[in-house]
Amino acid sequence: MLPILFQIGPITISSFGFFLMLAYFTGTFILWREGRKKGYPDEKLLDLSITSLISLIIGSRLWYVLINWHIFREHPVKILAIWEGGFAVFGGIVVLAIVTIFLSKRWKWSFFEIADVAALSLLASAVLIKIGSFLAGVDYGTISTIPWALELKNIVGERHPLQLYEALFYLLLLLILFRIYAKSLEVSKNGQVFFLALLFFGIGRYFLQDFKAERSFVLFIDLYSLSNFLLALFGVFGLYYFKLRDIKADFIDIKEASVKFLRKAKSGRWTF
């Protein structure tokens, strides 16, 4: 591992801090470039980028504290020590979605249109963050005897490089969604990329949790797996309700078909 990337005199640049900064600028660039293509003003896109960063930090930290309350119960002041690490992405996504909905309504933007761009931005950022986590030796995996298992400083046993598993998964998902995004622009399917990102992000992380060393349980429920399951479920619901089908139209069709059936049966036109 390489926790310290480089040092210039008294200035020390950590690997995690450097890749976190790089992740932010990369995500901001994608948000700005794609948002600008859709006609959104530069200054508002920058405002959204800064607001998104704050929302992700606050939401991810609060969810991490909630599901790991046993760590902070005796020393609640450590909740503010975000430089020590400790974030859970589910909370960040929820808070970010709420804030983005609010800003979209205030600025009269299409939420699903900007959500598609934001999903790509966040996935690109996630790739870099996980590389930073790997170099810093945090968010490590379970003990393993596989040939590529790694030994971490001050951590017992060789471990799965979970951070690299996640980085590779996010990169593949990003490339696939970018292709879908380009095609969706031609047919104006806003929201499709956003919901697909939630679906596969949740599914992928759900299975990758099996390699995660740190888990949190409440009444035998794995909260990390539960949060990923909820993300995937919301993705499925969103794809069905907003994009693939119209539930109201479905019920109307069923109702009309039922009425026609009953009328024919009652009129005696059908015999059994």
Can you tell me about this structure?
The chain is mostly helical and 272 residues long. The chain has one domain. Helices cover 68% and strands 6% of the residues.
In short:
By secondary structure, the protein is mainly α. The chain has helices at residues 15-37, 42-67, 69-72, 89-107, 111-136, 162-187, 192-208, 223-244, 247-267, and strands spanning 4-8, 11-14, 150-151, 158-159, 217-218, 221-222.
Percentage of residues assigned to helices:
55-70%
Separation of the first and last Cα atoms = 76 Å
Strand tally: 6
Query: In which order are the strands of the major sheet placed?
Result: 1-2
- Domain count: 1
Low-confidence stretches: none
Which structural category do the helix and sheet elements fall into? mainly alpha
Q: Strand fraction band?
A: 5-15%
Q: How would the global form be characterised?
A: globular
Mean pLDDT: 83
Number of helices: 9
Major sheet characteristics? 2 strands, antiparallel
Instruction: Provide the succession of SSEs.
Output: EEHHHHHEEHHEEHH
Q: What is the alpha-carbon Rg in Å?
A: 23 Å
Question: Could you list some keywords that capture this structure?
Answer:
272 residues, mainly alpha, 9 helices, 6 strands, 68% helix, globular
Blueprint (SSEs and pairs):
Elements: E1 4-8, E2 11-14, H1 15-37, H2 42-67, H3 69-72, H4 89-107, H5 111-136, E3 150-151, E4 158-159, H6 162-187, H7 192-208, E5 217-218, E6 221-222, H8 223-244, H9 247-267
Antiparallel strand pairs: 1-2, 3-4, 5-6
Helix pairs in contact: 1-2, 1-5, 2-4, 5-6, 5-7, 6-7, 7-8
